[in-house]
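**User:** My hope is that you can spare some time for a protein that puzzles me. As I understand it, each token names a local backbone shape. I would be glad if you read both lines and explained how they fit together. The protein I mean follows directly.
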Amino acid sequence: MRIILVQSQEPGNIGSAARVMKNFGLHELYLVDPQCELEKPAFYMATHAKDIVENAKIVATVQEAVADRTFVIGTTARARSSGAYDIYTPRDAAKAFVREGLAIMFGPETSGLSNEDLDYCQAYIRIPTSEHSSMNLAQAVNLIAYEFFTTQVDAGETALTTDPPASREDLEKLYQHFFDVSNYIGYTDEGYAHKTEHMYRRIFDRARLTYREAMAMHGLWRRIRWAADQKPERFPIMDKTET
């Protein structure tokens, strides 16, 4: 399981998160566009997990951090009423998802993940709190890592399939193909493109497509674009009236 910290602002928080990760058997840390240097406080707070800080992979974008993941869960402090989102408590998420191929993403200390960042997530974790919800970044990592450590999901108990899940990179290519075709056939336009994209991302993310299913969708959309370029007489209306 990968921990992704987006635009972290305090080196001490990065070190503390690394310390938590090692306590619960996690070692893969990605830092997206960090707003601080990995200075002495990061290593001081990491204590026995200095190696996780040293080996942290720094990337420029969320897309890079999640490209090879099969499932991405974002953390959010806001309650969301839309049924388009699968929102879990840390414990429920730990029961629902295997750690292999999974990424948990945390936003900046002051603002959390942006809507653009959350678009890369297929589900969200919201930590239940009282009306005062102000949790330190490392505390949030600690709580979620603990639940995944103590509530292990046996991969053999999940739905068995020989078809591997589509990676986040596979899905992003699929979505881009879909949006290109949608614009080409006039299903959407520049004014509504963002709303359309957001809605269909949610639909396909909830479906948890396999690689084979994603490839099938590519084939369908290639056929739709081909059909849009054909003359009407190529597709005569079939008279199904019974005689």
Q: What stands out?
A: Residues 236 and 242 are 18 Å apart (CA to CA). Residues 211-228 form the longest helix (18 residues). The chain has two domains: 2-156, 168-231.
